[in-house]
Write a structure and sequence with these properties.
- The protein has about 160 residues and is α/β, with parallel strands linked by helices.
- The protein has one domain.
- Helices cover about 25% and strands about 30% of the residues.
- It contains two helices and ten strands, in the order αβαβββββββββ.
- Strands 1, 2, 3, 4, 7 and 10 form a six-stranded parallel sheet that branches.
- The N and C termini lie far apart (about 70 Å).
Length: about 160
């Protein structure tokens, strides 16, 4: 009877391991999907931190002309890496829709510390709020909305 108990435990452990392996292969990734086409007439719609991160990652990977509209106020939960790099500056239209991104903060080691790093596009109708417990720190260029601007910024507010 003792051997049967050990065999049953091994079988259970093997089944659990197989289930975990299968789940890791089948479950979708946690990266947010963006709705919209990213064009001026059908911009990406962003209503959460995860969607803003997905947008940033697309821009910083080369989709520099992507257009987006905020659909809600939301807070950031960790230090921010800027949208738009020297190699891939932002060239689209970002419409904040009068919404606020709060808890904005950056890392002490980032040379470019801002929501947008390099902008050659249009940023409008956006409020970036830094809470008292957070800060915007960078080693070279620091701002809340945009660090290096060659585009157009209108109706934007930095608070905190």
């Amino acid at each position: 009877m003792h051997d049967k108990s050990i065999t049953s435990r091994r079988a259970l452990a093997l089944c659990l391991a197989a289930a975990l392996l299968l789940a890791s292969l089948v479950l979708p990734s946690f990266a947010a999907e963006l709705t919209g086409a990213g064009t001026e007439s059908d911009p990406y719609r962003i209503g959460s931190e995860a969607e803003l991160i997905a947008f940033r990652d697309r821009v910083n990977s080369g989709e520099t002309g992507a257009c987006a509209t905020l659909t809600a106020d939301f807070a950031l939960s960790k230090a921010w890496t800027a949208i738009g790099t020297k190699e891939n500056p932002y060239r689209g239209t970002f419409d904040g829709g009068g919404h606020t991104i709060s808890n904005f903060n950056s890392s002490y080691s980032d040379p470019i510390a801002a929501l947008f790093g390099y902008n050659h596009g249009k940023i409008q109708k956006l409020t970036v709020f830094t809470e008292a417990n957070y800060g915007v720190y960078g080693t070279d260029y620091t701002a809340a909305v945009c660090a290096i601007n060659y585009g157009k910024i209108t109706d934007c507010v930095s608070q905190g």
